[in-house]
Write a structure and sequence with these properties.
Elements (H helix, E strand, L loop, with lengths): L1 H19 L2 H8 L2 E6 L21 H21 L4 E6 L17 E3 L19 E7 L18 E6 L2 E2 L2 H11 L4 E7 H11 L3 E9 L2 E4 L2 H17 L13 E7 L10 E4 L2 E6 L2 H11 L1
Parallel strand pairs: 1-2, 1-4, 2-3, 4-7, 7-8
Antiparallel strand pairs: 5-6, 5-10, 8-9, 10-12, 11-12
Helix pairs in contact: 3-6
Bound molecules: zinc ion (ZN).
Zinc ion (ZN) binds next to loops.
Amino acid sequence: MKRLQSFSHAAIALMGAAAISTAADAQQSRGLKVFISVDMEGLAGVVTAGDVSSTANGDYQYFRKIMAAETNAAIEGAYRAGATDVLVRDSHGSKENILPGDLDPRARLLRGASTGPKNMMEGIDSTFDAVVFVGYHAKAGTPNAILEHTSTGNVVDISINGVSLPEGGYNALVAGLVGVPVVFVAGDRAVVQQIRGLLGPIGAVAVKEEINDASNGMSPKQAQDEIRKGVEQAIRNRAHAKLYKLAGPYSMVLKVKQERPIYPGATRVQQGEFTFNSPDLLEILNAFNAMK
Ligand SMILES: [Zn+2]
């Protein structure tokens, strides 16, 4: 009985200590978590659709190795900056491009298509400290860009609250919604300019640029070195990164080539053009995913 009583006093003392521990202690104890979303069109050397299609006769098998290598460079940069946990979201097509054994074993891999609105950001939540984009590309209609498109390729344009967005733009909004800043983007020069235009001067590496539909770019090795250094620096500087947010309620204007069945609550404005309003950003993305 006496023993039990002294244990209770110790337990109460511990509870008191926990109650006065600071937020900084809490962050330290949960570590530094980094979320990496990886697409293919913006990888070093990629220039045609066949390079990123598992069903085409291009160099897909080669470029999925490059995808893993650029991702591993980002993972290494994150760990050098103090990361304790890294989650990689395979974000291209079927989301089954990175062969799991090719990935740095320190990272976890979120593989396969997912249901719900987050898509290329599946797995993000408020426990993360920074988001990194690798292999990203510019939105549909961007001049001087390589493999520019938005999502399915059926999308002519998506804007939210009047802001026309590339994939990296609405993905940054999803991160902002849970309080996590995007700190770095790698892809062609066009996507780097586009993302910085929306998010501000975040870390970036332009691994290639378009010249009359051709790609003038770094060697994969050089791209990986730059990504490793760039991600490390961007994560070290994450305190300066701003959350990307638009004030709600949200209003989407979606323009598509081929119309899909209309999402409940959406309005058809004219041929190929729909609007949808909601106070919930994820509901906006549900409508986008249904009609894109
Ligand atoms: Zn893609």
